[in-house]
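Quick illustration, no need to memorize.
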Amino acid sequence: MPRVRKLDSMHLRFRCPGCDDWHVVHSGPDGWHWDHSVDLPTLHPSVLVTGIQWPVGEGFHNPSHAVAPGGQTVCHSFIRAGRIEFLHDSTHHLAGQTVDLPEA
């Protein structure tokens, strides 16, 4: 079962269970190295996604992140052999945990 999807020749997406959202990375010479597995993918270096928490009830509020409105959200992880290892600087409920990547 695929855990990453190739969007085009240079972009991959995966479903992040910490953010409950999609993350897209650029693969290729100037981007992340991908081992070309869609079932048990490995990407490196780490994936860092940041944003700003919106107020509750507005557009892009993400309840998965324990951040007050206006604060910075962080999702920082390594993807190795189909598992996502969330680093401790992540601001969501899976910080410090390793889980299987969900199907893409």
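The beta strands are 5-6, 11-16, 21-26, 33-34, 43-52, 72-80, 83-86, 98-100.
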